[in-house]
Q: What sequence folds into this?
């Protein structure tokens, strides 16, 4: 392997992320980055469903939440709320992921015959009903949620949890990209583009959608476990409609059709919510931390108005525009000088 | 009459399929019927140990629950009909519908306080009919104007990009929710019904508030006006034509942009009306916007997006489920009642993925 092959931006990013705990501040690594990685992994499941299946799901945070609640109920021996089953920690992990995957399969099967805006609405309803379920059913949670949940031994230290989040994020990124090249992924993309044609070619459209939804639910469940270990607790408010929309917004900020956009969006979101309040004089111009949601809303509005492809789309657009203008100049310099006005309208 | 026309192609297709797949196709419908029958038997004869008891031994409680469901369905219909009207014509899912609902509720409350001259402890006795109707109309009108501005600025130029529009209105709902929190605070506030409609009367030995029946009456009036507008006016005719074939309406030289604007105005107006009624019924608080977005979504998913008939059916079914599930569940399990909203949704989706009166896009 030549040196140039090794020096790709992705490899560089990987090395930086793995070496970061050595020189970054603990706060930045174990709070900002870990949180961004976990959110990014959850948002990546939205991107997976949207880009390869054409399904925009608002139920992904619910699956993360189900995994968290199930783990809390199964693993704790004694606590104020929940079932307190006291199972061994890895049994609890397996139980949480099994329940999450099964629920994702059931909900996916119910929604699989619809697409587009209908799918978005149905999954939003799933998310909100799920929130009300955990808020009302005191047997498993109740409004206060499940507290004092400990991470299993290998991840007990914050830095190790950070590494787990990085590794799982990388696996998620590579896995989702790889699925796009398998027969299943290609069939899914075909169904996204023309479900009727794929149906008449003999593909089971509803089954493919259901399985994609189940897979996304499983990965969101993994992210949910990381999240509950990182937080030490989980309450229904953390999966209510507000955070649900924030997660979609994270996927949208980054760009709904690029996997790297999920983590970029999460990093921008967590960074903004952490550091915005530390900029001096920011209160004077009305941007107080209390009005943070207004800022986020306005940013999303701006992105959606300018480019539905999100930040990655804007970057690519910018790159394409710069590349083209340089090429234009090098090929035909006299034209730009003589007819400057004609050029922008052509684009 | 019309159903015969719609079902004809289906009957033409079915004979070519095997008997087994025909049977599989009927399965969801059959399942729905079995579930409905079981629920009816439970409510009428078996429901011992529930807060209400079986209907044969406590008919009063059954009638009150039924009234609760139907009156709440009235409020659901007012809100959801606005949502479905906008979607039916423009294919725009207005995620800010709940925000317009809540905003009008807050405005109605403030205005009623100003009209009555008290900021707290307003009793229905202090409130004349005008003290309720003026806030209703003003709140709804402000919601309608905001809705119109929203449509003209953010939705007019990207017509047809459904997901982009949904995300744009989602972002607007986040901003509106945050600004309402700043403006009106996080505490729950409520409005009073006019004294003239607030009485209690006896029904099967149970006391019942007439203000709930008043709410239903307002909803029925709204429904009738909506029906007259859509079926007896030129504008309504154009809207119905636009729902079926927007391109054709455009080609006939009708100014559909104007029709879009009016429809959005009316849809937002209905959200605002619902908001003021909801503030009188259950109060307004941070979070009501999300809850009512959910309510609108459930009603239109059950009834079918874009269909007013569907909004009536969806409101009734959802309203009845909300009223019946907590009182006819065994007392120990009352908190599981939220599951029945999901069961209703699952039953409808299994039998008809696009809702009772909906059609695939």
A:
């Amino acid at each position: 392997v030549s040196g140039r092959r090794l020096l790709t931006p992705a490899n560089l990013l990987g090395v930086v992320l793995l070496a970061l705990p050595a020189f970054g501040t603990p706060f930045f690594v174990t709070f900002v980055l870990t949180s961004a990685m976990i959110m990014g992994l959850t948002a990546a499941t939205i991107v997976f469903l949207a880009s390869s299946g054409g399904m925009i799901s608002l139920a992904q945070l619910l699956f993360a939440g189900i995994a968290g609640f199930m783990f809390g109920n199964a693993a704790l021996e004694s606590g104020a709320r929940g079932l307190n089953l006291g199972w061994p920690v890895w049994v609890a992990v397996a139980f949480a992921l099994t329940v999450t995957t099964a629920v994702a399969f059931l909900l996916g099967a119910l929604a699989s015959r619809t697409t587009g805006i209908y799918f978005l609405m149905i999954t939003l309803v799933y998310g909100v009903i799920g929130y009300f379920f955990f808020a009302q059913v005191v047997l498993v949670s109740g409004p206060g949620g499940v507290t004092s949940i400990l991470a299993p031994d290998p991840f007990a230290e914050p830095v190790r949890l950070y590494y787990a989040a990085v590794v799982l994020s990388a696996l998620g990124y590579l896995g989702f990209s790889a699925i796009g090249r398998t027969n299943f992924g290609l069939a899914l993309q075909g169904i996204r583009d023309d479900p009727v044609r794929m149906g008449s070619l003999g593909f089971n459209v509803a089954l493919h959608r259901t399985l994609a939804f189940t897979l996304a639910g499983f990965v969101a469940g993994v992210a949910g476990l990381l999240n509950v270990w990182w937080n030490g607790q989980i309450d229904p408010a953390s999966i209510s409609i507000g955070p649900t929309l924030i997660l979609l917004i994270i996927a949208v900020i980054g760009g709904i059709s690029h996997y790297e956009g999920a983590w970029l969006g999460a990093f921008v979101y967590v960074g903004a919510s952490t550091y915005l309040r530390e900029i001096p004089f920011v209160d004077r111009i009305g941007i107080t931390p209390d009005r943070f949601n207004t800022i986020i809303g306005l940013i999303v509005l701006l992105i959606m108005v300018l480019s539905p492809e999100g930040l990655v789309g804007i970057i690519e657009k910018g790159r394409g525009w710069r590349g083209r203008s340089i090429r234009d100049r090098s090929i035909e310099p006299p034209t730009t000088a003589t007819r400057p006005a004609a050029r922008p309208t052509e684009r | 009459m019309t159903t015969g026309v719609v079902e004809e192609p289906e009957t033409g297709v079915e004979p070519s399929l095997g008997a087994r797949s025909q049977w599989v196709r009927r399965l969801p419908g059959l399942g729905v019927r079995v579930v409905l029958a079981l629920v009816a038997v439970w409510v009428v004869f078996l429901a011992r140990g529930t807060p209400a008891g079986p209907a044969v031994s406590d008919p009063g409680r059954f009638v009150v629950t039924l009234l609760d469901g139907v009156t709440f369905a009235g409020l659901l219909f007012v809100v959801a009909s606005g949502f479905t009207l906008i979607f039916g014509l423009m294919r725009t899912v207005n995620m800010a519908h709940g925000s317009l609902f809540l905003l009008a509720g807050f405005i109605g409350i403030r205005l009623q306080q100003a009209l009555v001259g008290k900021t707290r402890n307003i009793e229905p006795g202090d409130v004349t009919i005008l003290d309720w109707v003026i806030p209703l109309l003003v709140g709804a009108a402000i919601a309608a104007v905001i809705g119109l501005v929203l449509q003209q600025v953010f939705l007019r130029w990207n017509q047809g990009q459904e997901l982009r529009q949904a995300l744009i209105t989602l972002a607007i709902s986040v901003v509106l929710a945050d600004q309402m929190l700043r403006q009106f605070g996080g505490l729950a506030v409520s409005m009073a019904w006019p004294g003239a409609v607030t009485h209690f009367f006896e029904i099967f030995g149970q006391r019942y508030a007439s203000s709930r029946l008043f709410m239903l009456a307002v909803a029925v009036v709204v429904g009738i006006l909506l029906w007259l507008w859509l079926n007896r006016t030129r504008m309504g005719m154009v809207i119905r034509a636009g729902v079926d074939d927007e391109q054709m309406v455009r080609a006939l030289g009708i100014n559909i942009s104007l029709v879009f604007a009016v429809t959005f105005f009316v849809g937002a107006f209905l959200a605002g009306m619902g908001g003021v009624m909801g503030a009188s019924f259950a109060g307004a608080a941070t979070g009501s916007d999300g809850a009512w977005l959910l309510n609108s979504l459930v009603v239109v998913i059950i009834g079918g997006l874009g269909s007013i008939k569907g909004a009536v059916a969806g409101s009734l079914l959802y309203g009845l489920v909300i009223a019946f599930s907590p009182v006819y569940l065994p007392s120990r399990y009352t908190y599981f009642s939220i599951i029945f909203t999901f069961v209703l949704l699952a039953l409808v989706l299994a039998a008809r993925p696009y809702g009772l009166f909906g059609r695939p896009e």
Summary: The radius of gyration of chain B is 22 Å. Chain B has 13 helices and two strands.
